[in-house]
């Protein structure tokens, strides 16, 4: 097992951040890491996700949404080929700090027989992808009242 965990404090409510995180149509305008999500965010649904890790090959996958708690959390489970080869549970958590800020935690738990062979890629490229997405999310949320690029 391998976990990557990043977090960032954003001067915005969980409601505002949730609105931006779940507006998948806008991802190409601001998100450097998860450049595309298609599908409906509801537990049990299959969505289509395209990732662009820094200095690595783009990846497309079709994870299953595991949990959706509005304004708090969503997570999905993606797999390469069959269960146990390389599985990744991607998690977004929003924690209201009760001081007009929210801590956004983005993490992923990787399991499967390929994890030891991909450890360096995960520690470097994937972590940088999480951090760049977090940074851009913070900029958008704090830049304007709607949190929508171009407004």
UniProtKB/TrEMBL annotation:
Q: Which Gene3D superfamilies match?
A: 3.30.530.20
Record InterPro entries = Polyketide_cyclase/dehydratase, START-like_dom_sf
Q: What is this protein called?
A: SRPBCC domain-containing protein
One Pfam family recorded for the sequence: Polyketide_cyc2
């Amino acid at each position: 097992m391998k976990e990557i965990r990043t977090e960032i404090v954003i001067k915005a409510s969980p409601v505002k951040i949730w609105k931006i995180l779940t507006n998948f149509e806008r991802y190409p305008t601001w998100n450097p890491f998860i450049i595309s999500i298609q599908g409906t965010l509801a537990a049990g649904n299959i969505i289509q996700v395209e990732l662009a890790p820094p200095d690595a090959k783009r990846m497309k996958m079709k994870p299953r949404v595991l949990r959706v708690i509005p304004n708090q959390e969503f997570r999905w489970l993606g797999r390469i080929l069959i269960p146990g080869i390389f599985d990744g549970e991607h998690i977004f958590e929003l924690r209201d700090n009760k001081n007009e800020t929210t801590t956004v935690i983005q993490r992923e738990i990787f399991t499967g027989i390929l994890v030891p062979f991909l450890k360096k890629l995960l520690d470097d490229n994937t972590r940088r992808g999480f951090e760049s997405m977090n940074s851009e999310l913070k900029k958008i949320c704090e830049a304007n009242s709607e949190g929508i690029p171009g407004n």
